[in-house]
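Data availability (excerpt). The following record was deposited with the supplementary files.
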Amino acid sequence: MKLYVARHCSTECSEKKIYCGESDVPLSARGQEEAKRLQKETKGYGIDLLFSSPLLRARQTAEAVARERNIPVLFDDRLKERNFGAFEGTDVEAPAGKVFRYSFALKYPRGESNLQVAARVYAFLDDLKENYAGKRIFLVSHGSVCRIIRSFFVQMTDEEFFAYSQPNGAVEEYEL
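Predicted structure:
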């Protein structure tokens, strides 16, 4: 099975580098242009199924990819961004949040840990593997989820895991 994984296109939050976990924000003007580019770049992918996080920024990106294709966008909550809890809307570079950001087991206050995100994302990937063998699947999700998906396929040290960041609007390909 071919798996294409895209991080949603840019938002004001990603451009300003603020935590935007479960906030339901739209694509920025730059993100809308990126979505048009992504739609064109993926024309030859032969996608059978398109799954997306239900959050608006991912939905808008997925809908751009689905445009001019005869496939629906299927939404799954397991593809939502990590819940950053009390740090939602704050600067991602602020020292207070880094202890949670660069930890596997620590949960953001009122939020999630990387391990919790991995549990739901790995379960989603296992479901794809079990139910859609031989299909070409396109996923649209978020930065933390894209990092977790990469860890499913690629061995990484802790440093490599935390250093990895899939750019907005970029696509990674994996074999499942």
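Summary of structural features: The two ends are 5 Å apart (CA to CA).
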